[in-house]
Amino acid sequence: MTGPIIVGVDGSPTAHKAAETAKELAAKLGAPLHVVSAHTEDKIAHTNSGSDQWEVSSADNALYIAEQVVKKLRTPGQKFVPASAHGKPAEALISYADKVGAHMIVVGNQRMRGVTRVLGSVANSVSHNATCDVYIANTYGD
């Protein structure tokens, strides 16, 4: 086994199902699991609270989403890495996977049926463009 397993998350229930599948695969293969959330903008929001000023970026929000998923997945003895990646979801996952030398990207099959299948999906784009293995997890139903 070379390289980590990557899973893309966006805070949705279907992405969490894909993350659960990725967790099982990573455990069976003895690989670390990188939980990645994409962000397309480099916006920084400024928030004031009394005399304090806070800056929150799109990257921070994406990382927060990944960290929340990792908290739900956490299992003793298994390595998890929350991360954010810049770009549209498919491009961000592929770029991140290339950067860390991933063995596999796990994505859900959301929007791979019906009309949206013709228009494209993250799973479709990743499966056609990734330089590593791709596992498409069934996120429909139970």
UniProtKB/TrEMBL annotation:
Family matches, as InterPro entries: Rossmann-like_a/b/a_fold, Universal_stress_UspA, UspA
The family this protein is said to belong to: Belongs to the universal stress protein A family.
Entries under Pfam families matching the protein: Usp
CDD domains: USP-like (cd00293)
Residue ranges occupied by any UspA domain in the UniProt entry: 1-136
Name the UniProt record assigns to this protein: UspA domain-containing protein
SUPFAM superfamilies recorded: Adenine nucleotide alpha hydrolases-like
